[in-house]
Amino acid sequence: MQKAQTGSLGEFVVDSDSPNSKDVILRRKCNSGEEIALSAILGPPNYEKDLIFVRDVFMKVCIKKPTLSSILQFDCKVYQKNDESSEFDINNACYLGSPTSLSSSIYRGPLFSELNNNLQKAFKEYLIDKGIGGSLTNFLLHYLHTREQKQYANWLKKGEAFLSKNKSLNQFSETRSA
C-alpha cells in the first residue's frame, strides 16, 4: 500500500464509519443544493491481478436535487488501475421517484451496459463533476483496505484474548480436579 496514492475526501465528509461495520458512508452538499450520499464497501478478493489492492470497492452513489424527492442512484465499482491510481465504472443507474420507492418490483431502467455509449460517458462525467473522481476513488481504496487490516488485527487480538482466557479456565479446572 506504500506506493498507492491515498487520495482525499475532497468536499465529502464521513457520515458513518462504525468500527463494527463493513461500509463507510460519505456525504456532500453541493453549492447547487444537491445532496450526495455515497456508501462504499470492499468487494471479494481478486488475486488474478498483481496489484496492491486485491479487492475492488463497491460504491453506491445517491444524488438528490433540492426541490425534488426523487433520487438518482448509481451502482459503481472502484478498482485499482495501476500502482498509483484508481478508476471507477458505473454498473447501473436508476431513477427512484422517492426514497421510499425501493421496492424490487419497480422498473429501474435498462441495463447500464445497454445504454448509448455517449449517455454512459455523460453519466460518468456527471459523477466526476460531483466530486467522484480519481482522488476520491484512491481514498476509498486505501481507506477501506487499511480499515479492514485494522479490523482484522483487532479480531485476532479478541480471538487470542478469548482463547487465552479459555486456556486459563481449563488449567484452573484441571488443577481443581486433580
TrEMBL record:
InterPro entries: MAM33 (IPR003428), MAM33_sf (IPR036561). GO terms for cellular component: mitochondrial matrix. Pfam families: MAM33 (PF02330). It comes from the Eukaryota. Gene3D superfamilies: Mitochondrial glycoprotein. This is Glycoprotein family protein.
